[in-house]
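Appendix B. Worked example

We walk through a single record from start to finish. Start with the input: the chain for DNA helicase-2 / ATP-dependent DNA helicase PcrA, Sediminibacillus halophilus, length 778.
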Amino acid sequence: MGLNFQQEKMRLARVQKTLTEEVDRLEEETSRRKKEVVHIRKHFWDEVKVNTETFDDYLETIIGLRQEAQALSVTQSIHRHASKRLSTLHRMQDIPYFGRIDFREDGASDVEEIYIGISSLRDDSGENFLIYDWRSPIASVYYDFQPGPAKYAAPGGEVQGELKKKWQYLIRGRELESLFDTSLTIGDEILQEVLGKGTDKQMHSIVATIQQEQNRIIRHDHGRLLVVHGAAGSGKTSAAMQRIAYLLYKYRDRLHADQIILFSPNSMFSSYVSNVLPELGEENMQQVTFQEYLNHRLSKQFQVENPYEQLEYVLTAENTSSYQTRLAGIRLKGSSSFVDAVQSYRRSLEYTGMIFKDITFRGESIITARQIEERFYNQDASLRFPNRLEKLKDWLIKKIKEIQKAERKKPWVQEEIELLSDDAYHEARTFLAEKRGLKREEIAHYEVEPDELGRLIVHQKWMPLRKKIRSFRFIDFKGIYRQFFDDSSQFVKGENTAKWSAICKATQEMLDEDKLFYEDAAPFLFLKELIQGFQTNSSIKHLVVDEAQDYTPFQFEFLKRLFPSARMTVLGDFNQAIFAHANGRVNFDTLTSLYGRDRTEVINLARSYRSTKPIIECTRRLVPNGGEIIPFERAGERPVLKQVVDRVELHSCIVSQIAALQRLGHKSIAIICKSAKESERAYESLACIKDIKLLKSNSATYEQGVVVLPAYLSKGVEFDAVIIYDASENVYGDESLRRIFYTACTRAMHYLQFYSVGEPSPFLRTVLRDGYVQYASI
Ligand SMILES: Nc1ncnc2c1ncn2[C@@H]1O[C@H](COP(=O)(O)OP(=O)(O)OP(=O)(O)O)[C@@H](O)[C@H]1O
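Next comes the structure step. The output line below is what the pipeline stores for this chain.
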């Protein structure tokens, strides 16, 4: 049976009326609650009588204060909830629902009509659902089944039944424009329509068009680790965002947005995805980059190279003498065998090799590194390593207490007392008097004894020293890491000796200047924490890692230990592994060992949605296993290659091509270069293009319009049209650049153009031969 368009229009109008009434009611409530909050804040102290004369008065004051604070917090919380609901309802006014299923549960006689939207809505009686939240159990039938037998997991157990019909609604400008019986239409009309549009400044939710395989990711709810491996444009990030919204709904009584962290590749990406959750009526999760975390932990001690500096080096310094050594170092330090090597090294420190620093006071060494080392290695070797360190710490604290006692008699203490300013003396007197329990009015008459003052001065002067000991700053972590790179180190196996020597030399030189290569940052921190114990953050319950192919085994080990209570969702695509450390690694096997096979699930996404079919037909042939990628059927032009003779011709062609693309309505156009260095040059030469922008690694927002950027910064984002600035053999001649080239090409949604100064890259040879890329006609 078909739906009656007119009746559906009328139903939509009825739902909109209910929505409007609900919006009016909530607007009134939020404004009233806001006034109440302001009132309570303003008159907070009028309602509380502050009297501390007697204990009873004091108690009464405390109770009064607490009551007022409670009233404020309750009103604030009601106001917050109402405002949140109101903003969701405002969004629902535009599109109250997008889908419907007609479902008959086994054993029931009636067919239920379930309308699905971004949030639920009940009728005036409060008994019946006019709209079901897309995350409700029954709504999963919409995403998972075609008409026929269907089931869903309800809190009380599995519900079986029959899906009679499935509909999609296209509502625009609050009007029902069309509706589709999805069991009759071929292809997905609404998905076609959504994907056919231009890109936006920010990513949007895909709630109305979630595909079955994506729904598995969104509702996946067991195990510790979910690994999603998917082709470029297969919706990994989109599904992950929807997944967060789903988890926030399902566990709304115990999971809050601030207990979820997304590790994103860069700030531009963070800004790009930051709209999805608010669009679904949820608060945003926390977002961070691994680099930010490393800086937070290491920047006091080292100047840490950032990942883009490392990439830029790899992409542009091939003619320097240290290049091959550095590359070998990056690969070695990013491997899982290096994780094992560092762990063995740490175990060896139980017997020998710990390096300590002298403990000094006023420039004099009071406990030497040698004494500390002796003490450490003379302890009972059967004690666990962390316990030995704890004991060492206790011994040091005790020892400096003794030295501190003797210190009081030293002349410098007397000198300090004499030099005390009036203010400092007053402060010291107040502190000492209060410590003795004196009342405020008695302080001024308190006679401070010189001994007492001396004790205080010494105590204060030694405070930083005690702090240093408590935080293990008497351990020379840099020295210990440096020692690992002594040529003779037996921990790194299978590395070519000459290469290993060169890697050691380069690493030690950097350390000597208090600098860390990016590839050393995670291993250094890992070793440090293996020694002193891992810092943990148990408040985080869910961790999402995007662009996971760019993480080293060290980084994952880290995340696992740092967030011991978190479940992890990891998204990646090895074809886009652009960092040099990833060469050779083509799967997520190391990830499976993180929590074990039975606590890990891997889901593959093969269908790619971002680009038109002709673009995907071309790009999937650029990578070895691209045959597995399935293009979504969306028509478009074949990618085009234009070979030019020199840069002058290149720039003139790009300028006219951009004007042509803009005439065709493409709003976001990216000129993607190999490196930042090439991007800068291109930007300067193309400065005549109106409003052209150069994106750099520190760019915080994803820009629309015409942009020039290095390929590695384009990760995760997309553009209406992509121009590969110079796809020549000269630039993309080396096999190691295949993945970066692929990443750049897969950013295009509707149009992909290659330019080549001279011979095109060998990556394009087959696609040109087989006609998946056409030569430009002029
Ligand atoms: N089910 C869907 N409905 C509508 N749009 C979708 C759907 N799935 C993916 N898309 C769109 O496809 C594009 C690519 O999605 P997304 O960025 O999530 O893919 P990805 O796998 O993370 O890509 P990459 O690895 O290349 O960064 C986005 O524009 C997204 O909105």
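Two observations about the output. The longest strand covers residues 157-172. The chain is about 45% helix and 15% strand.
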